[in-house]
Specification:
about 290 residues, two-stranded antiparallel sheet, globular
Length: about 290
């Protein structure tokens, strides 16, 4: 080698060895993100999921962080309980619509006890008495009577759903109990905003965890949502008219379409966070949205 010329540097071999692994990982991700029979609307869904996530990060999450820093924990618990009591009214209504008499009576007792003795729901006395919350909605009512789910569908600003559940969400919003508690639009809108921010503040830790553990947040959220929803559909379809039946147990799926077929298993500990919409509190606040 000519001593007058410096040796030409060679690229580090460990970097070269990493290239095939990166290519393989990219190929696997591409394969997972396309041609999924449960998600024929994936191009739209991914775009809307990204939009919802950006809205959340730019607006909702920063406000929720500030809200959590300023408002004391006992007060936030009271806000959560108050809106939860209103949600129980609609859950109870759907229990009766589905013919689940015992579950509906449980909801009726919850609302009555918390409203009368819990300062209009600010205190959750019912849970201490063994009257546990059993959320329900009109999408599950449609499923109870055999309406198929249709494909996965991300609702603008509200997050993951299916075509059937999106239709149910519209009914949930229109008949939200908060809409009938006051005629003042400004009050309803302020209450809806409070519910949204309070719900988002309650979910800050779980959504941060989701961002850390998920390689593809869209796929993780989609699969977890469908699996959790499938469990709820099985419960409402298998529960007899006079049997209480736990929410997350059930039998035959009753002919549900692709979203109720076998889906990738998701750890139970992550279901609560992974089933959240891209703007997590948006769907939680759906029951307090002002009626048009």
């Amino acid at each position: 080698m000519n001593p007058g010329h410096a040796a030409k540097p060679h690229p580090p071999r460990r970097h070269l060895r990493a290239v095939p692994a990166l290519v393989l990982a990219a190929s696997l991700l591409a394969g997972c993100a396309t041609n999924n029979p449960q998600d024929p609307l994936e191009p739209y869904n991914r775009a809307m999921f990204t939009f919802n996530s950006k809205v959340d990060k730019a607006v909702v999450k920063p406000v929720a962080i500030r809200y959590k820093d300023v408002v004391p924990t006992p007060m936030r618990h009271g806000v959560t309980n108050f809106f939860g009591n209103l949600g129980d009214v609609w859950s109870m209504t759907n229990d009766f619509l589905q013919g689940h008499i015992v579950t509906g009576l449980n909801g009726f007792m919850r609302v009555g006890v918390n409203t009368v003795f819990g300062l209009f729901g600010v205190l959750d006395i019912s849970t201490e008495m063994g009257l546990y919350k059993q959320p329900n909605d009109f999408g599950l009512t449609l499923a109870r009577y055999g309406v198929p789910s249709g494909p996965f569908f991300v609702i603008p600003l509200l997050g993951p759903s299916t075509v059937r559940d999106a239709a149910g969400t519209g009914v949930d919003m229109y008949y939200a109990p908060l809409n009938y508690t006051t005629n003042e639009t400004a009050v309803r809108n302020a209450a809806s905003a409070l519910h949204l921010i309070n719900s988002r503040a309650n979910l800050l830790t779980t959504t941060d965890l989701l961002e850390q553990i998920s390689l593809d947040p869209y796929i993780f959220t989609r699969d977890a949502y469908l699996q959790r929803r499938r469990a709820h559909v099985k419960a409402v379809r298998s529960e007899g008219i006079l049997s209480p039946g736990p929410v997350d147990e059930g039998g035959d799926s009753g002919g549900e379409l692709n979203p109720d077929a076998a889906a990738p298993a998701v750890p139970a500990a992550t279901l609560a966070s992974s089933a959240l919409p891209a703007t997590p509190a948006a769907s939680a606040a759906v029951h307090s949205t002002a009626r048009p």
